[in-house]
Design brief:
It is a single chain. Helix 2 packs across helix 4 and helix 5 packs across helix 6. The chain is mostly helical. The protein has six helices and no strands. The longest helix is centred in the last third of the chain and has 24 residues. It starts with a helix and ends in a 7-residue tail after the last helix.
Length: 149
Amino acid sequence: MNQARNFSIASFLSGLLFAVGLGVSTMTQPGKVIGFLDLFGNWDPSLIFVMGGGVVTYAVLFQFIMKAPAPLFAPKFMVPTRRDMDGPLIVGSALFGIGWGLGGFCPGPALTSLGSLNPNALVFVVTMIVGMYVSDHVKALMFRPSPAA
C-alpha cells in the first residue's frame, strides 16, 4: 500500500511539474501553437525550443535511468518493444494532429488551462473525454469475439 501511495505522490508531482512547465513556457495559450503552425504567416518558432528542451532532457536522462536495476516505484521497467505502425496508431496520430491544429490545444495544455477557466479549454477537454469514450466503445465493438456457431 505504501508503494502505491508513493507512486501516486510521484505521479502528482510529475504532473504538477509538467503543468508548471507548460505555464512558464506559455504553451497553454492556443495562439502559441497556432502561431507555430502558421509557417507562411506570422510564424512563432518558440514551440521548437520547448519541444527541443524536452527531447534533449529525456534523451540524456533516459540513458542514466535505464542503468538502474528497477524504477523507484515499480518492480521492473516496462519499455515498449513494438516497432510497427498499425492503422489505429496512424489514425490516432492524425486525429491528434488535426485536433491540435484546429483547437491549439493538446491534452496536457488543455487540462492545465482548465485552471484559468478558459471556456475553449473546457470545450476541448469535454470533447476529448467524449472522444476517448467513443474510441473505447468502437474498439470494443471491433474486437468483440464472434459468437460460436
